[in-house]
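Journal club prep, notes for RB
We'll compare a predicted complex against what the paper describes. Inputs for the 4-fluoro-L-phenylalanine case:
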Amino acid sequence: MKGSTLAASGSPGIAGKIHGAWSSRMGFLIAAVGSAVGLGNIWKFPYMVGQSGGAAFVAVYLVCIALIGLPIIVAEWLLGRRGQKNPINTMADLARKNNRSKAWVTIGISGTLAAFLILSFYSVIGGWALSYLADAAGGTFNGMDKDAAGALFNGMLASPATLVAWHTVFMVLTVGVVAMGVSSGIERASKLLMPALGVLLVIMVGYGVTTGGFGAAAEYLFKPDWSKLNSTVVLAALGHAFFTLSLGMGVMMAYGSYLGQDVNLLQAARTVAIADTVIALGAGLAIFPIVFANGLDPAAGPGLVFVTLPLAFGSISGGMILGVMFFALLIFAALTSSISLLAPVVEFVEERTPLSRVASTVVAGIAIWALGIAALLSFNVWSDVSILGNNIFDLLDKLTSKFLLPLTGLGAIVFVAWCLDRESVRKELGLGETGTMIWNLVSRFVAPIGVLIVFISSL
Ligand code: PFF
């Protein structure tokens, strides 16, 4: 398989350009896992577990991945592969070909818009990780006490110049990779960064085993306290299942559009979901042993990775090396996700304008970078600016996670399950009799209803 071009010839966009393609099935899988594994796994999942009841949250999350995440990821790839264009053109084409309302293009628009908005603040957090890598390497954590760790984080947030600088570096890296194209940019970067991430994670978990906090960490992650389960926890778990699999943002649609017919979408979805979950749990097993062994608070929230961990790194022997490894890992995870977020936006600009790949990437990157500046100013000079009761950073986060993501994901699964010819979908997914029954049940009812419940209750 290796080396062959998967998406046969691709389809020419408006300006007569050829759409990109993965060079191999493996390349596609690594890039898709790279997109899924990101800040959501290493930064957000552990702190959400900490805040939402440990293993009870993990259990609900796994169910959400299986019943809602898997069908939607398959639906998004299937749409992308059939359309072979950016998500907006893909949905317009598919609606027309299947005699459906033009309004279905809304899914493409909301997905692409979500990618645009999310990348603006994702890059800001990616910038925090870069800043902390520099701090770790420079020995800033050495001997820090609790107050100093808090002050380091707050000091970074209070400094627009620091935030802008690192956000800019992160965006430049993202733009650089995407500008190089699908197989020689996105795919190559993922093939380099993901194995590196895997190695770093294994080393960190290995260190965790030696700390004496490993047992407590494992218990925390895997022994459920069901009394902590409530509707908020369930909603958080479902929301996170969406985010962590990169659903509802046109990203998986774009990745599907570079795909040829010979990839089994169900198998690929299973691989991505398993890898994503293993890495999220691995991140928990890397982080919590350090937290427990040093008597720190596992429920520290978003500051778990940026305040609690550096505090530990500053006090343990070999902490400097661990700190560098950890923040490098975080950056690798973030980069392979940020490049995937830029992909649908760039595809759109490239296929709708006469601009070249490089120019399209730079234009999209600058627009997202500028919005990111507005987001990061929320932490300092614009902290008083409030739109609908939120600062700009929170507004972007809420607008996307509460509206655009569920809307796009719901639309994708409903379109595939209810609007496409069912026999052709069955064949494309290679389903037998039982498989068809399960697929129909899950894709037509369970997944859409699950998303609807979350959508409505989050309003
Ligand atoms: N899945 C990524 C994470 O867990 O960090 C984040 C992400 C990437 C979300 C790409 C959405 C997306 F389209």
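Talking point for the session: The two ends are 46 Å apart (CA to CA).
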